[in-house]
Design brief:
about 45% strand; Neuraminidase; 2 domains; 29 strands; 5-stranded mixed beta sheet; Rossmann fold; single chain; 3 helices
Length: about 425
């Protein structure tokens, strides 16, 4: 029974100043920016897609009021269009295709003082145009002196349920515009990037006699088995240099958290409670946070790896079944309603280990699988609402949420 409950804790959604204080940037105080398209290649459909992707990225940056009009101009024109003369900034770009069918993008950023920033980009295929848009937005953010948005250029990996006990693993960008199915066939869950370079990942395969953790190297395409266990086998987190994994296993019928060393292949048991301990996440100072039912209901605790001491982290919510940590902050999922006859609401909350502040980050639907960005600037999560899965991005210091819907299937878990 405990194994069943613990699996539900982890995959219950499969089918069914201080950052905890609101920081609001008033829209009317943000500088305006317009886009000018000077493309010389590609058809109108592709040009519209690129424009929308770039405009959306600039909007997600949350540092501009973005004009939504697409206007055309010659790239070498000395002045911006008359419609844009009162804009604080104008971003002019040119798409062109070379003889090798590579996508080339030239861009200039204008302000009242003329051209203040310019850069060229090239990718081998126009199929990955959205990553060029993400990189342009990233570079403009840096030019403006804003906080890091490294996550904008990173890839996302998720497990998509396409039918009962059948799934596929998909590599995508944060907007879900680009999607490449990397593993298909069978029942494969909980993908987790193996390193910060994102050239390998782990996942749980339920296609063998025991739940099995596997590793795929994207550079070579080679797959290898890491470890198997009765009951459960999930990699819930990877440390910064990729040398340590946090695994949830139940070799003797009791789900616990283990620290796995990728070099020695040894696994050290970190929890030994007579209940459910799952979903460990690395924190700073040799600590982890995890989900446990040691209070009689799922809640979030921290554990010192060196001493074994355990402390309660969250004091709000009676069903807190997912978490992620960055520095002194923890984001967690809490059930906000308890209705036997309708769908319940699960919201994400942000707490600080150094204060009693709690900040609710979402409002409706089932919000789960939160994960901090590598720079702590944002949180990615999955929202299931009105029979649709979406990827959500929360910009913590801008108090803004953005949703990107999945066109088919249901997201089971996600990592970036």
């Amino acid at each position: 029974m405990k194994i069943i409950v613990s699996i539900l804790l982890v995959i219950m959604s499969m089918f069914a100043s201080d950052a905890t204080i609101d920081v609001v940037k008033k829209a009317d105080t943000l500088p305006s920016i317009a886009l000018e398209d000077a493309s010389v290649s590609y058809d109108s459909t592709f040009k519209i897609k690129f424009f929308k992707a770039l405009a959306a990225d600039l909007n997600v940056l949350s540092i501009f009021n973005v004009d939504k009009a697409q206007r055309n101009i010659d790239f070498d024109a000395s002045r911006v269009l008359v419609e844009n003369k009162d804009m604080n900034y104008v971003l002019r770009y040119k798409l062109s295709q070379d003889d090798a069918r590579a996508l080339n993008v030239e861009m200039k950023l204008f302000s009242k003082d003329g051209i203040v920033f310019n850069k060229n980009y090239k990718v081998n295929s126009s199929d990955i145009y959205m990553f060029v848009a993400h990189t342009i937005a990233y570079d403009i953010n840096n030019f403006m002196g804003e906080g890091p948005v490294e996550w904008m250029k990173r890839k996302v990996i998720f497990s998509r349920m396409i039918s009962p006990q059948r799934s596929e693993l998909v590599v995508t960008d944060y907007t879900l515009t680009y999607q490449h199915v990397i593993v298909k066939g069978g029942f494969n869950l909980f993908p987790k990037w193996a390193n910060k370079e994102q050239n390998a990942f782990y996942y749980t395969s339920l296609n063998e006699t025991k739940p099995t953790l596997k590793h795929i190297d994207l550079r070579t395409g080679k797959s290898k088995t890491i470890k198997s266990s009765d009951g459960m086998m999930i990699c819930s987190d990877v440390n910064e240099d990729g040398s340590k994994l946090l695994l949830t296993m139940a070799p003797n019928g009791q789900p616990d958290i283990f620290l796995y060393d990728t070099k020695t292949k040894g696994a050290k048991k970190l929890t030994n409670f007579g209940g459910i301990d799952v979903s460990g996440q690395f924190m700073e100072n040799d600590k982890i946070v995890f989900v446990s039912d040691r209070l009689g209901y799922p809640n979030i605790f921290s554990l010192n790896i060196n001493t074994g001491s355990v402390e309660q982290v969250v004091y709000y919510g009676k069903s807190n079944s997912a978490c992620s940590a960055y520095g002194k902050y923890v984001v967690y999922k809490a059930r906000e309603s308890s209705d036997s006859f309708s769908n319940n609401t699960f919201n994400l909350h942000l707490v600080s280990m150094e204060s009693d502040s709690i900040r609710r980050l979402t409002a409706v639907g089932v919000n789960e699988f939160p994960k901090f960005s590598v720079d702590g600037d944002a949180i990615i999560f999955v929202k299931n609402y009105q029979s649709q899965s979406s990827v959500g991005i929360i910009r913590l210091n801008h108090n803004k949420n953005f949703l990107f819907p999945l066109q088919f299937g249901k997201i089971q878990s996600i990592d970036w």
